[in-house]
Structure formats: C-alpha cells, structure tokens
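#onboarding

Welcome to the new folks! Below is a worked example of what a typical request in this channel looks like: someone posts a single protein sequence, and someone else replies with the predicted structure as tokens. Don't worry about understanding the tokens yet, we'll cover that in week two.

Example request:
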Amino acid sequence: METDQLVVYDEWDVAPLAIPPRSRLFHLAPIGIGTPEVESLTGYVARLAEMHGVRPRQLVAREILPLLGRPRLAETPFPSLLSAFWRNETHSLNGTRTLARDMVGALETLTRRHDLRFLTLLTWADVLSTQQLQRLTRVFCPSCFAEWRQAGQIIYEPLLWTLTPIIACPRHRQRLRLACPYPDCRYSSPWLGARSQPGYCAHCERWLGIAEGGDVSGSDVLTEEELIVQAWIGNAVGELLAAAPDLPVPPSREQLLRTLAVWTQSRATVSRQAWARQVGLGPSTIGNWEKGKAIPSLWYLLQVCRHLGTTPVRVLTDDLPDAPRPAPETRVSPPFPARPVRACKAFDYEATRQTLEEILTSAEEPPPSLREIARRLNKSDEVLRRNLPALCHAISERYLRDQKAQGLRARQRLREEARQATYQIHAQGQYPSAHRIAPLLSQPDSLRGGLAKMAWQEALRELGWLGGKEGTPHSV
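Example response:
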C-alpha cells in the first residue's frame, strides 16, 4: 500500500513589485547633450509632439501651459493671446529667462527627465546678457536636414542655430536660411509654432532639406575669411554648450567679471581705452565690466576672447592665465565680424500705396488682416501704419467688420443648433437638459452663456418645460 508523501515546492515571493512612477508624456531622450550639436528645447517640444501624434499646439495648450500657470492662453475666447505666444515668446524658451526655466520644469515633470535644462542656456544665465543672444525667428541649414534624412538619422534643430553670432553652417560652408525657400511661401517661422515639425516649414509644411550644393545661391556660400571666423565662432560656442552638463556649479557674474579683468590686464600693453578701440569696443565698455555695472553680451565676449587668444569657456569657468604675458597688440586676421544691424531698406511709397489700394478694393474673401498683408510684402505692420495710416486704417476696419460678421453668423448658428437640439430631445419624450443637449452642439460649452443659452431657454418655454419669469422648470 502506497503512502501519501508531502511535496515541498519552491517558495515564491508574491509581494507586489515596486513599479517606478509613470510619466505623463514619453520619456523621450534629447539629442546631443554634452556635445556642441545639442538639441534646442523648442525642437525637443516639436519632436515630443510628433512622437505623440499631435500638433505642438495641442501638446502645449493641453499639457504644458497649465503647468506654466497660463491656461488662459489655450482657451478659445483668447486665440490672439496664443498666437502672440508663438510669435513673440517661444524664442525665449531656449534662453536664460524665467520662461525657459518654467518650461524646463514643466517638461521634466511631464516626461520625468532631469536633463532638459541643457537644451537651453540656463546654465549660463548669470553670465550671458540677453542682448543679441538669440534669434527671434527660426533659421536652419537645409543641407543638414537632407544629410540626416539620407543617413536615416533623427531630424532635429540644434541649440547652436538659435544663437545670434551663428550665421552659417561651417560644415556645409553656407549661410543658415532665414525663411522658407518656396516662392509661394517665403515664411519666417517662430522657433516653436502651432504646426512646427523639425525639417518642415511651420507655415506650408513642406520639406526644407536640400542636398549639399543643390539650390544654393552664391550669396549663401561663405568666403574663405568668413569661413575661418565662423568656424572659430562655431567651435567656441559649441564648446560652451558641450561644457554645461559637466559643470559642478554654474558660473557667477562676479566670477566672469573677475576672470575677464585678469585676462584683459594680462594681454593689454596700452591703456584700457586704446585696447578697447583695438578690439572694437566702446571706450567705456571695459570700465563698466570692471565696475560690475554690466556683463558682456555673447557677441562681445566672443570678440574679446578671439582677440585675447582664449575661449568663452575658459573665461566663464575661471581659467586664469598662468602669468601676464604681454604681446604686441595686433588685430586678429581675418577680423571679427561686426555685430548684425537690421538693414533699413528705403520705403517705396508709391508701389506700396498702389498695392494696398488694390488689396482694399479686391474681392478676396475673407479679407486679409493688415498683419497678413505686411507679411506678404515682407514689411512690418508698424512701418505700413507709419507711412500709409489712412489705407492701413481702412484695411483694418474692413477686416474687423468681417470678423464681427463672422462672429455674429457663428453665434446665430449656435442659436439655431440649440433650438433644434432642444426640440429633438423633446420629441424623444425626454427633458431637454443642458446635459442632453450639449453633445449635439458643435460647441458644447456655448450653453454656458450667450445666444445659445438664451435660445435653449426660449425653446424650453415654448415647449412648456419652463414656467414664469424665473425660468423654473415644471415638474417632469
């Protein structure tokens, strides 16, 4: 007779596994941190939106702006505020100001990453002046886009491109493009727009990359002298961006000014004013730095560093020269380029006046705004108003009348929708409550006030669901 035997099984640990916290958005890795080709924060947001299959507008409006404490920008009654945000503020997202810091905090909360500050200039916030630091509109190298696509690499926008001193791509020996190259577009994009996508125009959404040497005009190609200077500037600024993750403590303003003073004193063999003139600075500029009244802009810092034979990283990280070694003061050849100044083109009064009159009398529907007309003419609306105030006023008045008419038509449409939905629910033998009517409207929130709410209550009274002036519903 066989006896039952006990079987001893392996002991299992059935305690719940420790699951790390989940991120709201994808834990998308940035490109090039710790290298000169590090990605920009605005380009990262565009890539993040693309990974989620949405436009940057939806991602920013629904996920990011509430964390920035600016949810009203995304509300439908304020579309112009959101448009102004894309146009006027997004270049600051890559910089040193509060908006960049807040954006980094919001994105790190949503993605649970801890390295997004290196996609901006926040590491250098205390030592870089905001003057002439960043470009206001997007620039790009079409050859880089084409090369990355052909190699199967990720298309992105380097932080280097966002800086004012960087005017060209030394690797492809051509200037960075300022606008969409297609003749029917020619649109200058913000660094982050409602429809931004790396490698594509934010306006017409067409591909911006071209093969190296293709469709490049002679004015886009750098001369040998320009190439030498731009190569030095690119290396110096790239070294600055690459060094950010390795710094234990961000440099301070006092540290910069102290180190800069030591460098200038060790190299200057003439008076401070004479040396400043040799470098190309104003006579009081060096004095203001020494007194701590101002810090140099990135452009001036590069200009001084090139003349001193050093780099911004060495100055900003307190790398003092070993000993004073005066040398004959000679200009660096080729010379450092002058700071960019916006060219003032002569205003063609007659041609512009004729164009505005033709637009004003045209049957274009809907009539364009003055800002849209200014974009077509490649001018600012301020310049148009200053030179042709009467025509600009007439164009703006026509545009506003059309906008008001469109708004009235939209409200009337919502009014009819509310009445029809009320009668439809009533025909089904149910009380036409706001909860039942809202899903039938093109804008469900319209029942909260305005003509739609008045039309709904009017229909309720006609159907006998409301009684008295107070609008109290009858018992159902």
